[in-house]
Amino acid sequence: MHKGRGLEKTGVLMAALILVSTFLLPFIVVKPNRILEGQGQMLIDALPSVSSIALAAALVIVGLCLLLRLPASARLAIVTAALLAVILALGSAANAGLPPGNSYARVSPGSGFWLLLFALSLAFIDVIAKLKLSPTVRLMLLLIAIVAVGGIFASGILADISVMKEYANRADAFWAEMSRHAMLALGSMLVAFLIGLPLGVVCHRVSWLRAAALNMLNILQTIPSIALFGLLILPLGWMAAHIPGAAAIGISGIGTAPAFVALVLYSLLPVVANTVAGLENVPREANDAARGAGMTDLQRLFSIEFPLTFPSLLAAIRIVLIQNIGMATIAALIGGGGMGVFVFQGLGQSAMDLVLLGALPTVAMSFVAAIVLDALVDFSKAPGSEVRPA
């Protein structure tokens, strides 16, 4: 079979998902209010007839293109255009689906939209992987995507979607909880590195301590997050009540403090393990050359070992940050704030749009962090980035 002919095996599933979501599942759901269940509308019914037929035909063509072995650049352009068209169509469908004069009615994305978004995103990621783009290009594409998404939201095209109405009613609280969520994720990661980095160095130097420390941190990882939050309430509450000044700096049995401490504890294992693994992979010749040059142990650590361990430390940052962004959502259960506030409020009120208001930004933060840190890891491994001792 010649190159460029035949079917693209990975495109079969994506094309099938696109066709199912376009013709068999509701594109939007029109609800009488934010809580009650609504009536689903297919894509062909959610938009004016000409627009719906044109979009459905375009999606069929996109599905067929995914089946063919087209150049990766062409596939990227097709999938990107399809993603933008589907998002813009959602805004138009929401505007058309709202009953005139009814301020209580809501229009939510239906299962067809979510499956369509998933299939096109999967195709987009598949194309990006096949292109094998450099870290710089990946970061540029991420920046372009952020600007494009920001422009879509700023334009008001999606203002009639139910989740955007939830945002409009809670904009101040949204950004306050977003900043608290970021503080929990980033702050706990920083503290974990301040503790875990020297602990990893000590574990690398002292073999018997390494096994004990890693086993203990492994045990911490097995404790469910809710249970760990609960275990921390009593000691932190005692500290707040009996240690002068503890309450003044924010230590308490419930709230941000136990959530922050739990995230730090969960973050220690990746930091310590990656530090030990990175130091063990430092070539013996590099250390021997440094000793021959008269370097002390501390000089070797900072001038030779840490620079050579940098890719491993970046990988630890990636693991910890993505883990903490997700786990910080649970902090809302003990008053720690964050985007979990909207998730659990929505679950309590049976308002799924409120759940999405907390969940979607959390997913977006994790996605952006993964792309940025993956690029940084690749930068650190690029030729010429290694440190070579004299």
UniProtKB/TrEMBL annotation:
Coiled-coil residue spans: none
All residue ranges annotated as the ABC transmembrane type-1 domain in the record: 178-373
Membrane topology qualifier: Multi-pass membrane protein
Keywords: Membrane, Transmembrane, Transmembrane helix, Transport
Pfam families registered for this protein in UniProt: BPD_transp_1
UniProt record similarity statement: Belongs to the binding-protein-dependent transport system permease family.
Name of the protein this chain belongs to: Osmoprotectant transport system permease protein
